[in-house]
Design a protein that fits this description.
By secondary structure, the chain is an alpha+beta fold. The protein is about 35% helix and about 20% strand. A six-stranded mixed beta sheet has the order 14-13-17-18-20-19, covered by helices on one side. Strands 1-2-7-6 form a four-stranded mixed beta sheet. A two-stranded antiparallel ribbon has the order 3-4. A hairpin with a 2-residue loop joins strand 11 (about 190) and strand 12. The longest helix has 18 residues, at about 390-410. The protein starts with a helix and ends with a helix.
Length: about 500
């Protein structure tokens, strides 16, 4: 069990929220609903987030605040959510902890707005209104069914083109993929006198129907020149059926990472890949097996840079999986029909073994840092080579950026920094702050600016133009929920600034 001292050090996120004072009734209700619809979470009242300070709550008001929290949850949220509310003490100050468990009867929503407009989910450290696709997924969770097991009525199972899947199945299992095996794997079901395919069978097929129904069930692969998105060295779109995608993506990565001799054992040469390829293979497999195929407009993305390999899959990490505890043999399944098929094909070797394989191989790659995050409603795993040395050409490019910012903002290295004459330390402070997504208002408060328009024109727009920060909702630049986060290029730029 994590102690309060450690919790206070953690950033706000999917399962954690801090407030110095009780938020409005509607804001608190949205937070509680978001936790219940997702992985659960903990809300601490009496702790300021930015900067992180224990401010405490008035001891005489604790019972009253507890009752108010309980009443808000009871009066505004439905179905019933039962919070665990407790009192904690830290630094001679009192804190109210409200713990919400993952609900078993989603979608949880605001009574006043109904399911369509009152359902919220947790995305990073924000509470976002759920889309129709997300609401449908929550309904499936309540019924304990998965998206891939649903039936398709457009075409019968007998009329589907599954030739390459049949060929792969007999190659990997030694067994012919006949109707009996398809039925046992629950890839089709008899309904209204017809043998109807599940969505899993469509995804495993070579039929045109797969492209019509699931145009984004593909993997976009790219090898970029340098350490930031921009110029392509190579690109590949993998649009085969999902049983073949993981291997093709894996081979794309192998083409673009190096293998070299490290030492000799006797007269035999010992070769070693620059990245832990077993770990990368497992992450790719997980991306294909556990991606959320119900999400429209989202595909798997693999990006290879000079210093990193990134694998991004649609859909958040399953609520019961803790990526920070990879050696515990965790297993949770989003696609309940596809996963057993992948097990038969050998794409899944053993339930709960994938994360352990990743952890074990990383132990012999001390120069590789594995990190993960959930940008929007997706899950990204990054392998970073901390020994990578920046090429001279990037250093020159970043020196040009220094000159551009210095000229446009009128900076000098000796300036302390004010609203009228900002200093370089403010630029560093803002970029460092944006390692986690931040709103314009939060960044303004950090920099002690009050005029939103001037601040946006002077800092935000310039940093966006130079690709030092990026939007968390790029498809809606003017969204009220828009936040900004440092880019890969911004991180390299910040490192250069820190050396000045």
């Amino acid at each position: 069990m994590t102690g309060l001292a450690e919790i206070i050090k953690q950033p706000e996120g999917r399962r954690l929220e801090f407030k110095s004072t009780l938020p409005s009734n509607s804001e608190l209700a949205r937070l509680i609903i978001s936790f219940a619809n997702d992985a659960g979470g903990e809300f601490y009242l009496g702790i300021q987030d930015k900067p992180r300070i224990v401010v405490g709550v008035d001891e005489d008001q604790m019972i009253e605040l507890e009752e108010k929290i309980s009443n808000i949850i009871h009066d505004q949220c439905t179905p019933i959510i039962l919070p665990d509310i407790s009192f904690l003490r830290r630094e001679e100050k009192y804190i109210i902890k409200t713990q919400i468990h993952k609900g078993s009867t989603p979608p949880y929503h605001l009574k006043s707005k109904g399911v369509k407009y009152g359902t919220y989910i947790r995305v990073g450290s924000s509470n976002r209104q759920a889309s129709p696709e997300i609401i449908a997924e929550l309904e499936r969770q309540k019924q304990n069914i998965s998206f891939d097991s649903e039936l398709i009525f457009i075409k019968s199972a007998d009329d589907l083109n599954i030739e390459s899947f049949k060929k792969l199945f007999i190659e990997k299992t030694g067994e012919e993929l006949n109707k009996q095996v398809l039925s046992k794997l629950e890839l089709y079901k008899a309904e209204q006198g017809k043998d109807l395919p599940t969505k899993s069978l469509i995804l495993l097929s070579d039929d045109e129907l797969r492209k019509q129904l699931f145009p984004y069930a593909k993997i976009e692969c790219a090898r970029f020149k340098g350490v930031v998105p921009g110029n392509f060295i190579d690109q590949k779109t993998i649009e085969t059926n999902v049983s073949l995608q993981a291997e093709q993506a894996y081979q794309f990565i192998l083409r673009h990472i190096s293998k070299s001799s490290t030492d000799y054992t006797g007269v035999y040469r010992k070769d070693r890949w620059e990245y832990p390829v077993i770990a990368i293979r497992e992450v790719i497999r997980n991306a294909v097996i556990h991606r959320d195929y119900s999400m429209n407009g989202k595909d798997i993305k693999i990006a290879i840079f000079d210093d990193t390999v990134e694998i991004t899959s649609p859909g958040k990490l399953m609520p019961s999986i803790d990526f920070n505890d990879m050696e515990s043999g965790q297993s949770d399944i989003r696609n309940k029909t596809l996963a057993p098929v992948f097990k038969r094909l050998g794409i899944i070797e053993q339930w709960g073994n994938g994360l352990k394989l990743i952890a074990e191989e990383l132990q012999v790659y001390p120069e590789i840092i594995l990190s993960w995050k959930e940008p929007g409603i997706s899950f990204r795993v990054t392998f970073t080579n901390k020994n990578y040395a920046q090429p001279q050409e990037l250093q020159h490019e970043l020196e040009d950026e220094l000159n551009t910012i210095g000229t446009k903002l009128g900076l000098s290295w000796g300036q302390v920094g004010t609203m009228l004459a900002p200093g370089w330390h403010q630029v560093k402070q803002i970029l460092e702050y944006c390692r986690n997504p931040q709103s314009t208002q939060d960044i303004m408060e950090l920099a002690k600016w009050k005029n939103r328009t001037k601040f946006r024109n002077k800092f935000i727009n310039l940093f966006l133009e130079l690709d030092l920060i990026g939007m968390t909702i790029p498809e809606r630049p003017k969204s009220s929920k828009q936040k900004y986060q440092i880019t890969k290029k911004g991180i390299v730029f910040l490192e250069l600034l820190n050396k000045k």
